[in-house]
Amino acid sequence: MIVAPSILSADFANLQSELELINRSQADWIHVDVMDGLFVPNISLGLPVCEAIAQHTTKPLDIHLMIEKPARYLEAFKNAGASILSVHYEACPHLHSVIQAIKSLDCKAGVAINPHTSVQLLEDIINEIDVVCVMSVNPGFGGQKFIENTYNKIKLLKEIINDAEAQTLIEIDGGVNLENGTCLVTQGADVLVVGNFVFKSNDPLQTIHDLKNLEMIG
Ligand code: DX5
Ligand code: ZN
Questions:
Q1: What would the pLDDT profile of 20-76 be if each residue is shown by its tens digit?
Q2: Is 64 a pocket residue for ligand 1 (Cβ < 6 Å)?
Q3: Which of 14, 93, 128, 158 could be 188's S-S partner, Cβ–Cβ 3.0 to 4.6 Å?
Q4: Closest by Cα among 89, 164, 152, 88 to 126
Q5: pLDDT at 215 over 90
């Protein structure tokens, strides 16, 4: 299980100490949400903040681009420190070519899908995708309620990945906690993005530890 705390829920006025906390934790990646106020109704952070995060983290940067025409900025985010770069299916009419561009930068290629987007739409290119980020809330804000239909999507996506003998990881983003985490792992999730549940908890280190040790049911 890969655990990726989402920096969107951190205290932005104390980013360095928040990152140092994550460095000391068992987290695998650090998830960074970039929003442009167009693709999603919120504006979060951009290139200079990604660069600053990269300077203070020991974890790979998993950058989630919630922006229109993301191909314009792939190289810039790679230079800002990205290890994994995810673009939205809904923002890319030429998704195959965007994935190739990400890989040519030596980043892992991620494709994020909104709650209304069917996983079957990725069937023809599943072997090209390193990570599918299944949005379990509508993108734009942390602290939202988990959408239950996500379980069905994971199950179907796992079948598509297995049928294609692909190595694609399934990442779940939005409203993840210890309660739904067990079901998510059981259904086949490989990566859990966790914002509020980690940063607003009394003991983030312990919370990350508990998420790392989730066990499948049955
Ligand atoms: C939502 C973002 C998520 C968010 C998750 O648009 O993509 O990464 O930070 O935060 P929580 O876990 O609080 O839902
Ligand atoms: Zn995200």
A1: 999 999 999 999 999 999 999 999 999 999 999 999 999 999 999 999 999 999 999
A2: yes
A3: 158
A4: 164
A5: no
For ligand 1, mutation pick of 18, 32, 33 (most atoms within 8 Å of CB): 33
- What does the DSSP 8-state code read for residue 34? E
Question: b vs e for 176-204, b when ≥16 Cβ sit within 10 Å of the residue's Cβ?
Answer: bbeebbebbbbbbbbbbbbbbbbbebeeb
Q: pLDDT band for 155, please (50, 70, 90 cuts).
A: very high
Q: Shortest CA distance to 204 belongs to which of 182, 186, 178?
A: 178
Report d(CA 218, CA 210) in Å as an integer.
19
* Domains of the chain, CATH where assigned: 2-212 (3.20.20.70)
11 part of the active site: no
